[in-house]
Amino acid sequence: MIEVQNLSFSYGERPVLRDVSFALDRGTLLSVLGPNGVGKSTLFRCILGLLKGYTGSITVDGRSVRDLGARELAKRVAYIPQSNYPAFNYSVFDMVLMGTTSQTGALTPPGKKEERAAHEALERLGIEALAQRSYTQLSGGERQLVLIARALAQRSPVLLMDEPTANLDYGNQLRVLTKVRALAGEGYAIIQSTHNPEQSYLFSHRILAMRDGQVLAHGAPREVLTAGLVRSLYGVDVEVESLRGDQMRVCIPKDILE
Ligand SMILES: Nc1ncnc2c1ncn2[C@@H]1O[C@H](COP(=O)(O)OP(=O)(O)OP(=O)(O)O)[C@@H](O)[C@H]1O
C-alpha cells in the first residue's frame, strides 16, 4: 500500500533522514519509535507531499507522491494531528465533515453523501453523541477521536498519526489505541509516531525504530523490542520483561531495581 525506498532528506545542509526504507500493507499498524528530533515528523511531511526535496521514492498504491496533486494524495493518505491541534469553534460534526473536502473539492458544499460519510465516521468511533458539541470544549481524548473520525470521513486507505496518545490520560490512551488497532483490522494501513515502546509492542503489528535519521530496526514487535534497542534509541538501561506468554513486554529501568 505504501512503500518508502532509500528516502533521504536534508533541511538545507543538515541531513535528517538517511536511506530510510520500509513498506506497509493494508491491515497493518506500524509504530515509528525514535528519540526527539530523529526525523519522525519529517518522514511524515515527506509522505504527505509537504517536503519535496528528498531523494529516493515514496509510493502509495503504486503512485509516486511526487506526481500526485494535493487532492489526489488526500484521497490516499489522511493525516491525524495531535489532539491539542488548534481549531476554530466548529461543531464536532462540521469538523468531521471537513474531512470530505478531498472528495468534493474545497468550493463545493458537502451534500447528503458527505454528511452520511461524516455520520458513519462518528458511529465507527462510537462518538455520535458528541456531534453537536463544540470541538474546543471537548477533552483531549474526545478530540483525538474526532480527529480520527475526520480522517475516516476522508476515506483514505492510509492514516498517518502524529503521537495519537500524546497528552491523553492512561484510560484514553488505551481507548484510542484500541480503536486505532481495530481500524487496522478493518483494512487501513496506519503509521503512528510514538514515544512509548511498551504500547507500540502491545498494539502494533510492526515497529520501525529510527536513530540518527536511519532505520535501526524494522519488523514484528517481538523481533524488534529488546533492551539493546531501548538503550540504542534512548540511552537508558532497562530490563525488558516478557509477560502473558510474550503478549506484553515491560521496560524496567535498571537504576531503580535492587
Ligand atoms: N523546518 C525545519 N528547518 C530546519 N530544521 C528542522 C525543521 N524542522 C525540523 N528540523 C530539525 O530536523 C530534525 C528532525 O525533526 P523532526 O521534527 O522530524 O523530529 P521528530 O522525530 O518528529 O521529533 P519529536 O519526537 O520531538 O517530535 C530536528 O533536529 C529538527 O530540529
Structural topology:
Layout lengths: L1 E10 L2 E11 L3 E6 L6 H8 L7 E6 L2 E2 L5 H5 L2 E4 L11 H7 L2 H4 L7 H13 L15 H14 L4 E5 L7 H16 L3 E6 L2 H7 L2 E6 L2 E6 L1 H4 L2 H8 L3 E6 L4 E6 L5
Parallel strand pairs: 3-8, 3-9, 6-7, 7-8
Antiparallel strand pairs: 1-2, 1-4, 4-5, 9-10, 11-12
Bound molecules: adenosine-5'-triphosphate.
Describe the structure.
- This protein is α/β, with parallel strands linked by helices and 258 residues long.
- It has 2 domains: 139 residues, 3-Layer(aba) Sandwich (Rossmann fold); 66 residues, no CATH class.
- It contains 10 helices and 12 strands.
- A 6-stranded mixed beta sheet has the order 6-7-8-3-9-10, sandwiched between helices.
- Helix 6 packs parallel to helix 7.
- The termini are far apart.
- The model has no long low-confidence stretch (mean pLDDT 93).
- Adenosine-5'-triphosphate binds next to helix 1.
Question: What does this entry show, briefly?
Answer:
This protein is of the alpha/beta class. It has 10 helices and 12 strands.
Order of strands in the sheet with the most strands?
6-7-8-3-9-10
Number of domains: 2
Structural classification: alpha/beta
CATH topology of the largest domain: Rossmann fold
Q: Separation of termini?
A: 47 Å
Q: In sequence order, what are the helices and strands, one letter per element?
A: EEEHEEHEHHHHEHEHEEHHEE
Which architecture of the largest domain would the CATH scheme give at its second level? 3-Layer(aba) Sandwich
Mean pLDDT: 93
Q: Give the beta-strand count.
A: 12
Helix content: 25-40%
The low-confidence runs, each spanning 5 or more residues with pLDDT under 50, are none
- The rounded Rg comes to 19 Å
The small molecules bound here are: adenosine-5'-triphosphate
Count of discrete alpha- or pi-helical segments spanning 4 or more residues: 10
- Estimate what percentage of residues fall within beta strands: 25-35%
